[in-house]
Write a structure and sequence with these properties.
By secondary structure, the protein is α/β, with parallel strands linked by helices. The protein contains ten helices and 15 strands.
Amino acid sequence: MNNNFKMVAKTMFGFEEILAKELRDLGASNVEEGIRSVSFEGDTGFMYKANLCLRTAIKIIKPIHSFNVRNEDDLYRKIYSMDWFNFLSTDTTFAIDATVNSDNFTHSLYVSQKTKDAIVDKFRDTDGSRPNVDIKFPDLRINIHIQKDHCNVSLDSSGRSLHQRGYRTATNIAPINEVLAAGLLLLSGWDGQGDFLDPMCGSGTLLTEAAMIACNIPANINRKEFAFEKWHDFDEDLFNKIIESSLNKTRDFHHKIIGYDKAPSAVRKAMDNVANANLSEYITIERKNFFDTEKFTDNHLHMVFNPPYGERLDIEMEDFYTDIGNTLKRNYPGTDAWFITSNLDALKFVGLRPSRKIKVYNSHLESRLVKYVMYEGSKKTKFNKDN
């Protein structure tokens, strides 16, 4: 018997394709890319697995009803008519998240309020009592999405954003989001089959995500709770089997993952976060200024980093990016160097031509993930050898 249902995984701009691949690799069916989202089908166990394992998903939502809607009264009536007793009881709590893109509905807070009123009135009219709203820690989080005259009602199976993995307790100024870090690594082609360096590692997020990819460790194995654990139909035995099965798919790693930072406080924080993720045996963190370093391996090196930018740290942008280019050219032959920047003008100071530029967003900042291929010897020699 097929117990599959439709779900939607939300993500960041530019990560739709890699999230779709993640879903297919996990075993999802009918995977379709959208804008900042990927829809797919699976059963309850797969919903648990998607929350536990997906690296580039922010939320996993489960649509439960959809309808056309004309105005607030129409919304109220149709929400009221739904069978909320399948999902809520008078001794549980709920919260509403609403997003609207419609001429008929202009205020998401008003839509949330109208939805809340309809659900509360349904219970009060039927049972004489009502469930309460708890914005911070609800038992059920309901997602309302109105696009023009169409309304989708979904249950949020994740709760807090899935970037909150649970291992990062110490952060620096504007640390990179865990989902963003994982997405950049996957876009860069990192698969754990070589040596890795983050030369400006900050609080160690790229290092941690790189090690989890290399060892095929579930992205959210350190997370304390998912929203679906409070649902009426939560199957704890099934969830434990999913965790056990996912952990059985981890693999050994026989290369080096190294991080540098010149700030002692960053090194300490990175080491703490790596330890929280139980990855200290795979990751080495050293206090070093990247501009004074050389490649630590004779093998090919995969480098991904998030250099500081004007909004984060006070640096001389032209000198800083010039030093990045010079260090790569002089000291890092046989390296694929990737980094993200929101300062597109600064790239011209690197003095190298990027072989790839991928548009991504770092929080609200439009950015580029750029790749520089540093050949062994000169590029001319490399091409002569190939021909």
